[in-house]
Amino acid sequence: MKPYLPEGKITMIFGxxxxxxxxxxxxxxxxxxxxxxxxxxxxxxxxxILYQTAEDGIADTILPRLLSAKANISRIFTIEExxxxxxxxxxxxxxxxxxxxxxxxxxxxxxxxxxxxxxxxANDVRDKTKALAYIGEKTGCTFIxxxxxxKSLSNKMAYRSLGSIDFYAIARSILLIGRDPRNHxxxxxxxxxxxxxxxxxxxxxxxxxxxxxxxxxxxxxPYDINPDDIxxxxxxxxxxxxxxxxxxxxQLLSEHDVPASDIYKIAKKANxxxxxxxxxxxxLNIEAKKVGKQWLCSMPNLEQEVI
Length: 307
What we know:
Blueprint: E1 10-15, H1 21-33, E2 48-53, H2 58-68, E3 76-77, H3 91-100, E4 102-108, H4 122-139, E5 142-148, H5 166-170, E6 173-180, E7 183-194, E8 203-208, E9 216-222, H6 227-232, H7 241-253, E10 258-259, H8 260-269, H9 274-283, E11 287-291, E12 294-298
Parallel strand pairs: 1-5, 1-6, 2-3, 2-4, 4-5
Antiparallel strand pairs: 6-7, 7-8, 8-9, 10-12, 11-12
Helix pairs in contact: 1-2, 7-9
């Protein structure tokens, strides 16, 4: 499902509760277990999948949803966690991937598989997520991590993603799921970060009532909407200067370091003051280093350390 799920890499799916994240993940698993895309067309050879969830029971919640989505259940596996909770750096994860020749792992939600760490601390997050990156590199297995947005008053995705901004930095693809503020029956998936390919267009789906509690997933397809409208929940809302400064920094620094002088010039053209840029840099933990005669700004030092 390119470019949304880069092979052998980490994709994160974020959204507020009740927006359809798990339903979307379940239907991805169902489709790929049959070698199909979400629209039902053939995409690839059927693949084996590991599905781990902590918020919903496998037998009483996820399995009915998979069956409703017509998944090939023989290709979907889980790791028993009765004796010990599974974490991202757990040896059982790679062993299970190799045992079942799994090409996709879904962890829902992220928090449940981090172990006892502070999700707001970059080093703690880094150690856990690096483990997944290495496994993906060695096995070619793709990871989907589901997470809730945090409670920040800010309405921009990058700094409302769970805890440390390193979650945002670690993923090679990030999807935001929310409802169309103009029609709450429509769930929209927006591709808001893609390191390895051009971002995919927004796609939409609906969840119709059915005889069981799972609901019927209905793929709608490409959808015309601005991702900002999804997270704002109000297309008319104007962003603050600080929010605009944060977004500007995230966009400029997503791929490489940028001279501070260039950032200030670009910000000035956008009517954002140097003072506001500095405040945004502090809140995002943007790093600065002197190279020769100029200062370079960069995202928290994570990208170089993760495959």
